[in-house]
Amino acid sequence: EVSISGSSRCEAGEALFEDDDSGVSIPRAIVSAITSAPIDSRRGLAQHILLVGGGAQLPGFHARCQEEAAAGLEASGFPALAELAWVPSTPFPANQMAWVGASLLAATEAYPAKPMTPAEYNGALPDWLSTDPGAWLSSPASSSAA
């Protein structure tokens, strides 16, 4: 029988809220995304913080993210946005939310009906993990075609 101490279970979640050499905390990433967005988008972003994935199902995760993001916005000089910071509840479990969102997008007319081949897929999509917002708006394929 495997026994895991309570402190070990607690510490696993703490990694998501601490800045270190391997990356920034989730609340700091939220604050960074909101404050670096165009000014007209900030209010809407602050009011619609959607947390997805298995980690978002940790007890108290949503409340803590909301609280720390609001504190970060206030400390960054955006007290009006701090008051708006809100993590809405959703009818779907957090670990299924990304799949549900992709399914909804795929069902719209905005989504291309033609599937991609592996050759088209490789290097043809924006780099969503990049810290450069410009990389989110253009794919490598569109940059090289220009």
Produce a short descriptive summary.
The chain has 146 residues and is mostly helical.
Describe the structure.
51% of the residues lie in helices and 0% in strands. By secondary structure, the chain is mainly alpha-helical. It has a domain at 7-97: ATPase, nucleotide binding domain (Nucleotidyltransferase, domain 5, 2-Layer Sandwich).
Shape label? globular
The CATH architecture of one domain can be named as 2-Layer Sandwich
CATH superfamily (homologous) name of one domain = ATPase, nucleotide binding domain
Tally of strands: 0
Unreliable segments of 5+ consecutive residues: none
Largest sheet, described in full?
Answer: none
- What is the count of DSSP helices, taking H or I runs of 4+ residues? 9
CATH topology of one domain: Nucleotidyltransferase, domain 5
- Tell me, rounded to a whole number, the average pLDDT: 82
Helix/strand structural class: mainly alpha
Termini separation comes to: 60 Å
SSE string, helix = H, strand = E?
HHHHHHHHH
Radius of gyration: 18 Å
By CATH reckoning, the class of one domain would read Alpha Beta
Strand content: under 5%
Secondary structure: helix percent: 40-55%
Protein name: Actin-related protein 8
Organism: Rhizochromulina marina
Catalytic activity: ATP + H2O = ADP + phosphate + H(+)
Pfam families: Actin (PF00022)
